Amino acid sequence: MEALSVTRLRFVHQRTKLRCSSVLLLWLAFTLLPVPALTQEPAAKPEWGPWRFLLGEWVGEGSAKDPGQGNGRFSFSFDLQERILVRKNHVEFPPADSRPASVHDDLMVIFGQAGGAIRAHYYDNEGHVILYDATAWRDSAATFLSDPEPSAPRFRLGYAAAGRDTLSIAFEIAPPGQPDRFVPYLKGEAHRLVR
């Protein structure tokens, strides 16, 4: 009986050593394998000059003429040592007609790609994700144009400087199957918070 216990202990010990060796080998394999994201050539730092007019905190207010229009604020700021430009947006909509009050939050990350192209990824609290091509001109205008998809609407968001601390904003939507027939959806102005 004692010999059986010793044999069993040896077996358990060998099995434990084998498991530890297997775990160690797996860990080494995963840590030593080349990771594609780390081995690819990093994109050059984007040229943000034409985008700088957007930097700061902005406030937009709805008008009394349109009770469904919301009041909100957004900001544009650099992050990751100026590798990305981040827009954060918060809008509060008052109740209107049969619609209750609501809040809209979104986040857009603007980044450079190899070759100098600028892209943006948009996410909101309603579950929307929009991928944009982004362009800015002469420190005075920027446009975000969503990728065309045959069975989905296409979006265009534009900002234009309307003075040193004022932006005109337009958001347009093109119906599915007509990617260049944009119709205005929202228009407004925002004013920079000066500190």
The strand order across the widest sheet is: 1-2-3-4-5-6-7-8-9-10
- Can you give the mean pLDDT? 83
| CATH superfamily annotation of the largest domain | Calycin beta-barrel core domain
CATH topology of the largest domain: Lipocalin
Note the beta-strand portion: 35-45%
Task: Report the strand count.
Answer: 10
Cα(first) to Cα(last) distance is 84 Å
Unreliable stretches = none
Number of helices: 2
The helix/strand series, from N terminus to C terminus, equals HHEEEEEEEEEE
Percent of residues in helices comes to 10-25%
CATH domain class of the largest domain: Mainly Beta
C-alpha geometry: globular
User: Main β-sheet: number of strands, strand sense, barrel status?
Assistant: 10 strands, antiparallel, barrel
Radius of gyration: 27 Å
CATH architecture of the largest domain: Beta Barrel
